[in-house]
Amino acid sequence: MSDYNAFWRCIQAGATYLFVQLCKMLFLTTFFPTWEGGTGMSVNSSISLVHYITMAALVWMFTCYYLPKHYQLPLTFLLGIGVYKAFFMESFVHVFLLGSWTALLVKAVITGLLSLSSLTLFITLVHSN
């Protein structure tokens, strides 16, 4: 029984550490914003956060042992788009000579589509089991 107690102490310490880091980041970004486009940076960070959560969900779905075969192709496609999204975005911005705010909008739209597609796939996967 004491083995489990030590495990949960480690989990509790890790969660406390993450909470303190989150508070520190919120404090720093609230009271010490960057002087060069602080709004654009926070929007970009929010878009990146949604992208990372989406990628984590896709990887989790891909590694599920009960994943039906017909889900592997769409998951692989979405993972490929997610992994190479930065390359596609830089190429798109370079070819079409987009401004920074337009590029941010395109990045938000692509991330939104990727996350909604992942959510749809996740919901159908959960309801099929």
TrEMBL record:
<dbReference type="InterPro" id="IPR019164">
    <property type="entry name" value="TMEM147"/>
</dbReference>
<protein>
    <recommendedName>
        <fullName>BOS complex subunit TMEM147</fullName>
    </recommendedName>
</protein>
<keyword id="KW-0812">Transmembrane</keyword>
<keyword id="KW-1133">Transmembrane helix</keyword>
<keyword id="KW-0472">Membrane</keyword>
<feature type="transmembrane region" description="Helical">
    <location>
        <begin position="104"/>
        <end position="126"/>
    </location>
</feature>
<comment type="similarity">
    <text>Belongs to the TMEM147 family.</text>
</comment>
<feature type="transmembrane region" description="Helical">
    <location>
        <begin position="7"/>
        <end position="29"/>
    </location>
</feature>
<dbReference type="GO" id="GO:0005789">
    <property type="term" value="C:endoplasmic reticulum membrane"/>
</dbReference>
<dbReference type="Pfam" id="PF09767">
    <property type="entry name" value="DUF2053"/>
</dbReference>
<feature type="transmembrane region" description="Helical">
    <location>
        <begin position="75"/>
        <end position="98"/>
    </location>
</feature>
<dbReference type="GO" id="GO:0005886">
    <property type="term" value="C:plasma membrane"/>
</dbReference>
<keyword id="KW-1003">Cell membrane</keyword>
<keyword id="KW-0256">Endoplasmic reticulum</keyword>
<feature type="transmembrane region" description="Helical">
    <location>
        <begin position="49"/>
        <end position="68"/>
    </location>
</feature>
